[in-house]
Fold:
Amino acid sequence: MAQPDCRLYLVTPPALDPAGFADMLARALDAGDVACVQLRLKDVSDDAIRRAADRLRPVAQARDVAFLLNDRADLAIATGCDGAHLGQEDGDHAAARALLGERILGITCHDSRHLAMEAGELGADYVAFGAFFPTDTKQVVHHAEPELLRWWSEVMEVPSVAIGGITAANCAPLVQAGADFLAVVGAVWNHPDGPAAGVRAMNAAIAAAAEG
Structure:
């Protein structure tokens, strides 16, 4: 079956217990199409990141879902991840590109066309734009508009990821503007009927938006 043009990109909660979360992740990934999982842990030790990656990475990779590590290209390699996602303050992006080799490199570009062009030129595998909507996951400094996704899809072949407060109820304009991936946290992990229902709801909303 052909993959949809826009796919789901799951970001983990900023704090989690790897043992318990592994089962939750498995149920979410078994519920529908997910392109990748980003392990995003804040204010924890390298050892804690390693333990989480070692527990969660096989869950994703066994299902042919890419497993990415936030912030750290070096730890991504050390823990066998499929790549890394780096913010603008996360070190030297060109060095990370060289270090990761064939692995995936994604770069946060906020609401900036300039930063996105720079990321594309140095070989990023995708650029992330946002936040598009209010979110409780992190403090929102940059606000992006769907037009940015439309412009990017028209001028560049590098895929785009939309992030920031995205839900099944508000994602349609982003899908229709050309986002290749929708990155979500709360829409899945905080879904009232559980993460599997969250994945199903997001996939249904993406499909409906694509047809609309």
About this structure: The longest strand covers residues 104-110. The CA atoms of residues 176 and 211 lie 9 Å apart. The chain has a mean pLDDT of 95.
